[in-house]
User: Fold Expressed protein from Schizophyllum commune.
Amino acid sequence: MTLASSLVSTGLETLRPFSPQLIPLLICTLLIPIVVFFSLASGLLVWKSLAVGWEVPLYLQYGDGVQPYAQAQIPSLVSSQPYDISLQLVVPASPSNLALGNFMTELALTTPSNGTVLSVRRPAIATPPRSFFLFPTSLTTEISVPLLAAFTPGLTDLIASVTIGRKDNWRSIGAGEGRELSVLSATLKGTVVHQGVRGLLTRFPFALSCAAAGAFFLTCMAVVAACLLPVALSGPLDIAPPSPPTKPSPPARPPSQKALPDSETDSSSDDDFPSPRRRLSRRTSREVKHEAPITTIKDEPESSSTPLRRRRSKIADLGSQSEGSS
Assistant:
């Protein structure tokens, strides 16, 4: 256990200078799957938002005493996208179908709450299949019945009800067959009408979805690179080895102070606590004195008059009196 921990610590210490490069690389590795997932999700979202064609199989009901009918849920539509809706039939090339002549195809579009959006009826006829010289004649024929052109649904969820045949199907024709169309398969088909800029996008839905996913991926990777590339390109860390601990030096002894004489002690104490008079003198000495400029007085010429006598001061008179009294 100790050996494993020492190996792990040694490995971490070895990789520590390269951490500025390894950490961005690890983050980028973890972000790539997330970016790929969201890129695919964005492409799928674009695919779902674009209008595409659709086909719905119809399972006709027979023997109910009415014309063959079927009901089906139309796939989710783009409400503002126009569609061409048609009915594709594959019928046997039998004499009864060919002798039936014209028959009617009715389409009714309703909402899930049973509200009628549109109802339309179109005629159709079964024709014999084409024969080729080198190929045998087909036993079936296809009938395409256009029902709606450039239809804008205005809703996303619609239910289609289709009725095929004639209302006078109780009458017999030929060898006694009923006037009812025999159908092998029926499909309700919706084709996108390409108009304007929306039509340019709906022409190539797969390519546009791939382009959206690629653009999202490149944008995310550019943002990640802009955030992590400056850190990844920086050099390895220069980690200095730890210096050995130094012993604390003993505190320096203060220099010995010599005993000062009393006079110096008194003077220092006086300096430390100056008297108010000394404070006043210091304060006044700091003030700047402005004196008048010096003017020179010329010496007057000696006059021939009697020289002036000097007046004796009071201190000298007091001194002479004290001497006389003694």
Summary: The mean pLDDT is 75.
